[in-house]
Amino acid sequence: MAIPQSFLDELNERTDIVDVIGRYVTLKKGGANLLGLCPFHEEKSPSFTVSPSKQFFHCFGCGKHGNAIGFLMEYAGMGFIDAVKELAQQAGLPVPQDDITPAQAAERQQRKAQQKSLTDINAQAAAAYKELLKKDADAILYLKGRGVTGQIAARFQLGWAPRGEHTLASVFPDYADPMLEDAGLVIYKEETGRRYDRFRERLMFPIRNVRGETIGFGGRILGQGQPKYLNSPETPVFHKGRELYGLFEARQAIRSKGYALVCEGYMDVVALAQWGFANAVATLGTACTEQHVQLLFRHTDQIVFAFDGDNAGRKAAAKALECALPFAGDTRSVRFLFLPKEHDPDSFIRERGETAFAEQVELAVPLSQYLLQVAAQDCQLATAEGRARMAHQARPLWERLPESALKLQMLSEIARVAQMPRDELQGLWQAMAQDPRNAPRRPRPAPAAMPAEPADAPAGDWTIEAMAAGNWNEPADLPAMPMDDFHAADGAPWAPPPDTVADYRVPTPSYEERPRYAASRHSGGERGFSPYSGARPAPRAPVRQHVQRREEHAACILLAHMSLLETLTEQDLMLLCRLPEPDGRLFTWIDDHYQNHGVQDWASIRPILEQAGPPAWHRLVPRIEEIAQQPVAHYREELQSALRLIMIRRLNLEIEEVTRNYDTDSQAAAKLLQLNRHLARLK
Where is this region: Disordered (predicted)? Predict the structure, then answer.
């Protein structure tokens, strides 16, 4: 969006910089100018001046200076366009738009009004939750037990959502107002006409954007139950991948301490603020994104990521590294702090104190070192093969760095660890980039379906043993199909080619007839289906037929009976989410929905799916409706069977991929050995 300079000049003339800065800084008259304590650095004597005549600010202590637009960008962390729009709204000036129609302009205005209404509704709810906290002895006792004072609770506007389903009915005059649903505060089930509060019996954490507007909530359950944290759904004003909890409260501390401390939990932020680390923020129940990093670098040049020392924390750190690399450079610093496995920031600082945590911050690993650690993962650096693999894994990370002195130095560091001359490593990478065989490969879509069973085939051909042994007459090679958002190149909804679609006959005997699997265990405890369990169901005759791939069938079962998601192991979930489009995208949505909302019935999930998902997902609705009408016990083993077959197929595809690259992949032999062992255990 290009804004004419003439408009910017008029905006500066119509804006009083004293009014703009005076909302954030206490100013006193000092001759022709006004003086105040600088909001950009710690000081005891005022060196921050504002000139009404020049419409300019300047700090003689830290050197910050600029006009009203620059002040909002520096202090509030706004982008240029947002700062201009903010000042234009205050001055009553319409911002010049690009060539848009009156209808488009009206739509923008309507969307803006809706966003303002949603933030006002959220603010009203936050105030009510805050008052309710004062009346709940158990919630207050919990906060005191976590060392949270009333002052910190007030700073973060902590609140309490009671047990009742209609608490907000006493807060808003019209509980049936659709805006309450749009804000994510109320859930409405059209099928039954039931309307109830989303947040019940939870400690409430209002989430505010950099302007201080309440855009959503996080709710933490105090006792047993799932999910532990429940967040507002995505709304027109709330986007988890773009916002950070506590950033509004932490802005000044980030400037004074010189860095932002990024955690994973809301209570981590509150506890750290209680112990003197008011510069802490947290992601909103999601992994770190590039938008998070970009937002933080508007407020500081130094970021410290604080993670638990367990495997989940290491995975989150690797994701944060990937997101931070494009923004790293010669003037920015990114470091990674890993706490002991038994601690998160909240428990660590309460047990060991402020000084011990400050020492951990000082020992945080720089991005340059952590990049080498991630690249060297699972590599035996004492061998030539291990060093070659390290260089291979380092290449995509190094390429994400912007052109800078840091990138040049990292090339030298990678070459040093790989024990290769720097120029030779760079030349090798350049040659690999030009070789089409090393171009990124698009994942092959999962085969469309199992082939049709002959009409006279015996029922036993549908057993797991028969399929695992390869007796399902799968086509040797399926044609590549366009999978971009479930649409083909001509824009029509995607469907498998007729010659690759076959009947996926789902056996469904009565519950009494069902053979049971042998009990299985996995590393997470006693629950969960293990694909290596020895017992398999006996052959059984199919009862009904429908045209559906088993990936879709598994997704339909999980959407119809989400409680079955809790029977899956982490390995199962990771495999499902890694499937090629469109299946992986659907399973990722299911997992995200469960993490945010817990187990819900299909009636609650359906409107959210229809609103959030692409239209192609809607074709699954009738099948999900059919499954949802049946008891969950009827589908427990069908889901397990589908997962076993999905894993077998994925392993076969991976074996084919490794075999094709055998001549160029130095690790191919080891990979094939591991994959074939895995496949043998499944069979």
Answer: 434-458, 513-542
Tally of domains in the chain: 4
pLDDT band at 526 (very low <50, low <70, confident <90, very high): very low
Mean pLDDT is highest, among 184-188, 305-309, 507-511, 620-624, for 184-188
Neighbours of 505 (CB within 10 A): 20
pLDDT tens track for 582-608? 888 888 888 878 777 778 889 888 888
CA–CA separation, 583 vs 483, rounded Å?
A: 10
Name the token pair of 134: 């004062």
The reply to whether 331 and 359 lie within a common domain is yes
Question: Which pLDDT belongs to residue 231?
Answer: 93
Q: Would you report the helix, strand and coil content of the chain in percent, each value rounded to 5? A: 50, 10, 40
Amino acid residing at 605? I
pLDDT score, position 413: 95
Show the DSSP H helices in 35-169 as ranges: 68-75, 80-91, 102-133, 137-145, 150-155
If asked whether residues 307 and 413 sit together in one domain, one would say yes
Choice between 645 and 203, residue whose per-residue pLDDT is larger: 203
**pLDDT reading at 21 higher than 70:** yes
**pLDDT reading at 249 higher than 70:** yes
Q: d(Cα 446, Cα 480) in Å, to the nearest integer?
A: 10
| End-to-end CA separation in angstroms for the chain | 58
The answer to whether the beta carbons of residues 355 and 349 sit under 8 Å apart is no
Of 604, 573, 567, 569, residue with least CA distance to 589:
573
In a domain, 403, yes or no: yes
Q: From CA 301, how far away is CA 298, in angstroms rounded?
A: 8
Domain enclosing residue 84, as ranges: 5-91
Q: Does the residue 24 lie in any domain?
A: yes
Cis peptide before 479 (omega within 30 of 0): no
189 shares its domain with 292: no
Residue 452 banded pLDDT, cuts 50, 70, 90:
very low
- In the numeric block, which tokens belong to residue 510? 């009565």
Residue 513's pLDDT is what?
Answer: 37
Instruction: State whether 284 and 227 are in the same domain.
Output: no
Two structure tokens written together for 378: 């699972």
Rounded alpha-carbon distances, angstroms, from residue 152 to 246, 270, 276, 296, 325: 12, 7, 11, 22, 34
Does 123 lie in the same domain as 31? no
The single residue listed with the structure tokens 């009014």 is: 19
- Mapped onto helix, strand or coil, the DSSP state of residue 214 is strand
Q: Report the phi/psi class of residue 342: left, alpha or beta, with left for phi > 0 and alpha for psi in -120 to 50.
A: alpha
pLDDT, tens only, 111-150? 767 778 899 999 999 999 999 999 999 999 999 999 999 9
The CATH number for 24's domain is: 3.90.580.10
Asked if 412 and 282 sit in the same domain, the reply is: yes
With contact defined as beta carbons under 8 Å apart, do 484 and 604 qualify? no
Is this structure's pTM higher than 0.70?
no
- Whole-number Å distance between alpha carbons of 541 and 460: 8
If you average pLDDT over residues 366-382, what whole number do you get? 93
Contact 256, 41 (CB under 8 A): yes
Angle at 26 between CA 22 and CA 30, to 5 degrees: 95
Exposed/middle/buried for residue 120 (C-beta within 10 Å: 0-12, 13-18, 19+)? middle
Residues 387 and 296 in one domain: yes
pLDDT of res. 395: 95
Please write the tens of the pLDDT for every residue from 288-342: 999 999 889 888 889 999 988 778 888 899 999 999 999 998 889 999 999 988 8
**C-alpha of 272 from chain center:** 23
Same domain, 221 and 341: no
Could you give the C-alpha distances from 607 to 189, 443, 583, in angstroms and in order?
9, 31, 20
| Dihedral sign (CA 16, 17, 22, 27) | negative
CA triple 521-524-526, angle to 5 deg: 40
